[in-house]
Amino acid sequence: MNHRAIRAIYLFEMARTWRTLLQSIVSPVVSTSLYFVVFGAAIGSRISQVEGVSYGTFIVPGLIMLSVLTQSIANASFGIYFPKFTGTIYEILSAPISYFEIVLGYVGAAATKSIILGLIILATAGLFVPLHIHHPVWMLAFLVLTAVTFSLFGFIIGIWADGFEKLQMIPMLVVTPLTFLGGSFYSIDMLPPTWRTVALLNPVVYLISGFRWSFYEIADVSVAVSIGMTIAFLVICLVVIWWIFRTGYRLKN
Amino acid sequence: MSSIISVANLSKTYGSGFKALRSVNLDIKRGEIFALLGPNGAGKTTLISIICGIANPSEGRVLVGGEDIQTSYRKARSLIGLVPQELHTDAFESVWATVSFSRGLFGKPKNPDHIEKVLKDLSLWDKKDNKIITLSGGMKRRVMIAKALSHEPQILFLDEPTAGVDVELRKGMWEVVRTLQQSGVTIILTTHYIEEAEEMADRIGVINKGEIVLVEDKATLMQKLGKKRLTLHLQGKIASLPESLHHYELELCDGGATLVYDYDTKGERTGITSLLGDLRTAGIRFNDLDTTQSSLEDIFVDLVRTS
């Protein structure tokens, strides 16, 4: 294992976060705070409790997930796309480093950033609404699992993209709608039965449901199903990445 | 000298069907400077990319330091430093950070003294804290060389190292390359500048249309090239050469207006004196003459044209 190479990539990527602190950390925190102001205070004050939890408190796990999902994808996709764009990928490909180690460096850094961000948003939420986390270990487990899975997904997008437009396309057109429709701001039990069935096809529902359970012990679907679905998506991403490196897809001629 | 790189039957066909390399065989000797010449699209960069792990070969085998580049890629790649043709740099990183990153990527422990030495050797020390985006093209090129040298490679690939670099800086780079060779590094450079190959290389290879058409010691090549050509512009046209001049193997050109004589400057006798004497005897007069020396460029152009 070339642990020095993994460390070099990891620290290089983390350095980019500190260099672009405003964009990486401050901006998601500001936008999440705005969500609390709009949904929690303005609209939420007119909504009664959801499953025994005040609306402002109810949306906290969904809002954290919203940021963690989008930031994991953004960080990881940009992390690997940018060397492809500038051409510096030549150095990664010619270094004595395995594909697994490359993924560990890039995805590890992207997931770390997202986890830090998720925890900052959690702390920010604590300033707006009272919070009590029933299962902190499970909360962390869901956070880490989601950050890693979607960082892997972002890594795939970064390799697939051959332009900045494509880099934005999946996060904008697929992930954001799925997250909004995945129960960030409501329980899918609030939907009519038909739409509830449709919502169950959305993988994000399972992530948010499991994460929310770790906070308040309320869930749209069973926790085991949530974990199972997240791990299934993780495995799919791993298989795709394995195929990418085996074939050299969009990396090697 | 033993081979540090051994390329056997290497072929590369791209997805489009374009054959970039056709069964290339090449051995690079330890400690030499090898210049690979070839026109655009000849396969130089593809060959380097495969050896360094950036492109996959379609067929064939490459050993670097005795290690197979595919089955033992870690050992093989750790011996190589690559300076690609294009200026690929991390614009917003400092010189020090990017060079240190390269060392880490190749699995070497931190060694600030070595990085300092590399930067000083390449006259980059006073720019070590500057962001790369603020550097000139020539400096960026040197940063790329510094990155390639950061992990103390035994082999250095320089793909068109002086393309677009001014004359002074080019000569400075030649100095750097010579110093590296003295420290035991094997250097493979591709270049468009024949002058560069002539100046630097121990051996020269010519590649065209994906095939190696010549590999020769520079000294041997220059000896072969050490031919000079004497051109005599005659006062009047002649239809044919008299019998007495046949042994000179002269060539009658321009419809009989000029005579061309090739001779070897390295030989004991050039034959010029006797030729001029015999011409006078034969009554052939000329009003001007000139001599030209064939360069590496001439033979390169000839090889590429005929291959």
Could you please describe the fold and organization of this structure?
By secondary structure, chain A is an all-alpha fold. In chain A, 77% of the residues lie in helices and 0% in strands. Chain A has helices spanning 3-19, 21-43, 55-86, 89-94, 99-128, 136-160, 164-180, 193-199, 203-216, 223-247. In chain A, helix 3 runs parallel beside helix 6, helix 5 crosses helix 6 (136-160) and helix 6 (136-160) packs antiparallel against helix 9. Chain A is globular and about 60 Å long. Chain A starts with a helix and ends in a 6-residue tail after the last helix. The model of chain A has no long low-confidence stretch (mean pLDDT 88). Chain B contains ten helices and 14 strands. In chain B, strands 6-7-8-3-9-10 form a six-stranded mixed β-sheet, with helices on both faces. In chain B, helix 3 (95-105) runs parallel beside helix 5. The longest helix of chain B has 16 residues, at 167-182. The interface between A and B is medium-sized, with 25 and 34 residues.
List the helices and strands and how they pair.
The complex is a heterodimer of chains A (253) and B (307).
Chain A (H helix, E strand, L loop, with lengths): L2 H17 L1 H23 L11 H32 L2 H6 L4 H30 L7 H25 L3 H17 L12 H7 L3 H14 L6 H25 L6
Helix pairs in contact in A: 1-2, 1-5, 2-3, 2-5, 3-5, 3-6, 3-7, 3-9, 5-6, 6-9, 6-10, 9-10
Chain B lengths: L2 E11 L5 E11 L3 E5 L6 H9 L6 E6 L2 E2 L4 H6 L1 E4 L11 H11 L6 H10 L15 H13 L5 E5 L7 H16 L3 E6 L2 H7 L2 E6 L2 E7 H8 L1 E8 L16 E3 L4 E7 L7 H11 L3 E8 L2 H11 L1
Parallel strand pairs in B: 3-8, 3-9, 6-7, 7-8
Antiparallel strand pairs in B: 1-2, 1-4, 4-5, 9-10, 11-13, 11-14, 12-13
Helix coverage percent of residues of chain A?
Answer: over 70%
Helix and strand succession of chain A? HHHHHHHHHH
Number of strands of chain A: 0
Helix content of chain B: 25-40%
What's the N-to-C terminus distance of chain A?
A: 25 Å
Q: Note the beta-strand portion of chain B.
A: 25-35%
Order of helices and strands of chain B: EEEHEEHEHHHEHEHEEHEEEHEH
Largest sheet of chain B: 6 strands, mixed
Can you count the helices of chain B?
A: 10
